[in-house]
Amino acid sequence: MSSETVVKASFGRCLIAETILGYIWWTFLQGISPTIWLYPLEVLGISGYEAFAVCLFSPILVGLGPIRRLLHSLNGLMVLRLMMILALTSYEAPTTLSRLIAFSIGTGIAMLASCGSFYAQSAIDRSAAFWGKVLGFLALHASRVYFKSLIPALAYTSARNVIIALGIIATLDRRSTMTVNPPVDHTLKHSRKPFWPLVSLGYGSLLYLIHWIFSEASLVARWGVRPYPDHGPQPYPWGALVLLALTIGVLLSTKFTPVTSPSFAWFGITLLWWLVGCAAFTGLYLTYTYVAFGAGLLLGVFAFSIWPYLFDLLTLCPPARTYGLSLVTYLCFVLYTVWTIAFNFVPGGEYTRETYHYKIIAILACIGLTIIHYKYPQASSSLLEKSGNSYSCTAFPSLVGNDGKRSPWTSFNKNVHKGLFLILIASLIGFGARYNPTAYERPPLNEPKRFTAMIWNIRYGFDNNGWQSFDRIVDMINNTGSDFVGLMECDCARPFVGNNDLGVFLGEKLGMYVDYGPATRDHTWGSMLLSKYPIVNSEHFLLPSPQGELAPALRSTVNISGDLVDIVVTHMGNDGDDLDRKLQAEKLAQVMRKSKLPVVFLGYVTSAPFNRDYQQLTRVGRMKDIDSTDNDRWCLYILYRDLIRLGYARISRGIISDTEVQTAKFEIPSSANYEDNSETTHDCKKVPIDARYPTRFGEVFHGHYSGMDHHYHMSTPKYFFRRGKK
Prior knowledge:
Strand order of the largest sheet: 5-6-4-3-14-13-16-15
Radius of gyration: 28 Å
Distance between the termini: 93 Å
CATH superfamily of the largest domain: Endonuclease/exonuclease/phosphatase
CATH architecture of the largest domain: 4-Layer Sandwich
Shape: elongated
Largest sheet: 8 strands, mixed
CATH class of the largest domain: Alpha Beta
């Protein structure tokens, strides 16, 4: 049997194994940044643990002879891949430090092993490795649909075990299908090589772009989100179009080739297509709602259509320095993203504040120069049919098809097409499985004018020990029985936080409407409102922040059984930025003062009670404190107007967050001549049953509760009533 027959018979099998390995590779690349992020989050600055990111630079070791020989050894590559897969168990580690060490080692091995497969001696092995990374990325994207935006292997033990088992099987199977010294290597020997530093910059930029914008289905929609009612496309179901756009881009990649085009035609077509990509990225960044979403889809088509060509250029260059520098470029963009948002906590942040546009320009420039600067030597169609000298050394190796003719599209048409189709179908099934027509239905209430509001800072879904806490956040909100939840530090749609969508996750798990707040491109840490009642309209604000970090805010008008109420949610600036907080308090007071409806303020104010900002919010904003006798507060405040207060509780932070939970119960007055409750009691028997707090958080506790569980504390819960009223 000839080598070509063997290749044709086994390429599909190789591709399946490489797709599983590519899925795991992307899990490490997307997981290393949030694994490190915990430590600077704890200290609000540079922690030193960022040094673990050097694990991404492991491909530079390929320049060492022993390492290079190890990668070109079947057993050596198999061992490295098994070590990579077993490193996923790091998320079962007893401490976050041991998890970080093990996961970093796994990431370094993943990058090193991929370098070995990308630069394998066989063009078939290189092609399978490349398309495995493409299909692996799309498969990870599709699997996150089922897990409501979370990375399965990092979020759930059962999913991680399945992925580890599949990875081991794929590795052992790949050991039996790879070749070390193939009889024929269908790679064109080019007399002129690409300029490797430019290729590194271009490929690293593309790698970051597809991770930044397209690693999760809801990201594109969150870039252009607007207030209600014209909020734009929701991640469900519109997110299904993102994977479709990426698939179209991959299919178009067969057209984005310089095989037979004259140099001047190739340059013109490439330049025009790059300008389309520039226009798409500009539209995503500067427009809103459906226009921004459409621009994002076009950007996805552009990015994935040029991926194979950029990868071909990468494999024509020296492996250690080219692939290593591309990962350095990728990491630089990740760090720049941190610097543009956390500018108030990092050195030199004043120069990177709110400068996403500089990063976008740099990404587009690097990609554009790379794809324009080099063209393969022109090859005639007869050469492609009769010889092994295909223009491509990786993406489209020249193979003999069923018709007996040699073509660079044989493996793509026969196997990659099927993989794309299956992943797309799997993604659509996932979206269909999430369909819930009764998600927002509520049983009839005895007192439809009563509701509970809650405020909480959830720290991007990381608990106090550094473990993901998404499901525990759901349980906590459910246990409080809250109808409205104001969340802070909740925008996780960034690579260094995990590119998760807490709005999607919490909204679907809890069956609540979501007002996402300012768009993820607005450089804030996020403020969000979850509501059991329909949101009628809203406003999003970037509060004045001349000195410190940008402070997000939103005002949502909700329909509570026919009555309209305004809910204001905000996270004000740090206590050290005095001017910021002064201006922010003035803006918020103005927003609340002009409202003609009852108002609830759920705010992270970062100042003590009764100070300047408190007075601004209460006096100028015409708001009342839920409990003006509570002097031991610093961050969280609940204020209200034109409502009757029923109860107030503070629940200790426990382990889920570094911030306690505060909740307040209200009743909408039946007439304008109402009287608010002025008396206070800890005796729940003095208030109606449906106005009482749940007993699962214990009884009244005086002082700070320091246990690891969640418990009422600070002399709460309190209830409010009027003497003489039943």
